[in-house]
Amino acid sequence: MSLDFHEQITMLSNQPILLCYHCHKCTAGCPVVEEMEFGPDRILRMVQLGERERLLKSRDIWLCAACETCGTRCPNGIDIAKVMDALRLEALRSGVTPAEPDAAKFHKLFLFVVQTLGRSHEASLLIAYKLWTLNLLADMDSGLQLFVKGKVPVLPKSIKGRDQVRRIFLKSAEAVAKENLPSANPASAQEAK
Amino acid sequence: MSAYTYYPGCSLESTACEYDASVRAVFNALGVELHELEEWNCCGASSAHSLNPVLALALPARNLALAQPLGHDLVMPCAACFNRHKSADHALRHDPQRRKELEDIVGFNYQGNIAVRPLLEVLTIGVGLQRIRERVKQPLAGLKAVGYYGCLLVRPPQVTQFENPENPRLMNQLLQALDAEAVEWSYATECCGGGLSLTKSNVAARLVNRLAERAREAGAAAIVTSCPLCQINLEMRQSGTQKLPVFYFTELMGLAFGLPEAESWWSKHLINPRPLLAELHSSRLAAAA
What we know:
- The complex is a heterodimer.
- Helices cover 60% and strands 0% of the residues of chain A.
- By secondary structure, chain A is an all-alpha fold.
- Chain A folds into two domains: 3-97, Orthogonal Bundle (Fumarate Reductase Iron-sulfur Protein, Chain B, domain 2); 101-172, no CATH class.
- The longest helix of chain A is centred in the middle third of the chain and has 17 residues, at 101-117.
- Chain B folds into two domains: 3-118, Up-down Bundle (Glutathione S-transferase Yfyf (Class Pi), Chain A, domain 2); 132-288, 3-Layer(aba) Sandwich (Rossmann fold), CATH 3.40.50.11810.
- Chain B is built from 13 helices and eight strands.
- In chain B, helix 3 (53-67) packs across helix 5, helix 4 crosses helix 5 (96-106) and helix 6 (119-135) runs parallel beside helix 8.
- Chain B starts with a strand and ends with a helix.
- In chain B, 57% of the residues are buried.
């Protein structure tokens, strides 16, 4: 346990996590709290207490739908969805296996398609996602309906500026690797454990 | 006559193609110029901000760089695209350090001369309800519908700068301008779980069916939205025998304007809206007789 973790997530999310006095407005309004292990206000408490391992391994950070209801209602102006973003980023950078692996796979594939084409392409994304998660049969009926209705173009459409888009991906990856990130530095990562 | 730059976004090229078609048809009918931004890229949606906060701002920043020399406000039909572009614009406008970083990554100088605006606001306030009312040829009298905004159009309010995040009114005002009956309910900005639709479909289904149930309880026969992620999630994950069709608000505008192409949009829906529209039509004929 270390307070460094609290400082790190505060910096990364740019949110005043310490101001939380647990009024539970966030948790009361959270649409997915029933599926969560802890729920938003306990997540904030655990960040305050530096419970790094439990947080990064928790399914809650992947279940957050980023609906922003919590942050909108927080009397202390804490945008909790940004804290969830910071925790996800930290989990990935630390090599923690996501507790909800499908969500992480989906986001990675989505970004891979955008990095390649400059735009998303549903057909490629869905097929790749199904293959990677081995979840081949889910939603076959509605997927087929969308295809029959001509709503998922088979051929991908790419833009001329996809090299610029790739450059944005590269530079953003570099930026996030060095910015406000004690754990990117092996010495302080060690300390955080 | 004002003109707008149009950013359709990836969904409107595929699963929300009827949204795109109805947007273009409605602008054409109102005589408002809409020019698609050339060479636009994906905004990164929820995936970018889930994995890399810098990328989540840099991807939309490239579109802002492309749009600013054109000098027109950038119109976003998709709530997720709007949210991402508005977040990037907010950071560029208010955070000098972030601005420098984004300008370097994208290779441009931010001017701040154009606004990122959601389609619903552009049509109801920019173009105006009065002009919309004047264009109505087939009033939607008898159509009972709830307006549904979802999350990303309204939250977080300090970024979206949309109207009251707990009780927005624009959708109801629009429905009333089309002479439809805007049914009041308490769930207009509750999350439908669209972001989890593929990865946690059981969670999304629970949220969708709760919304549909609340809409039925309020007496609505349809849900009206402006978000392509909500629309497909609400139609794909609804179960039961009394499914409510989910319309894009621009589809209802096209219908009320009497546009012939509206007929081609209905077959794109996963929940067939034709029985409801036929019912509406026959009750209108009965009332006229």
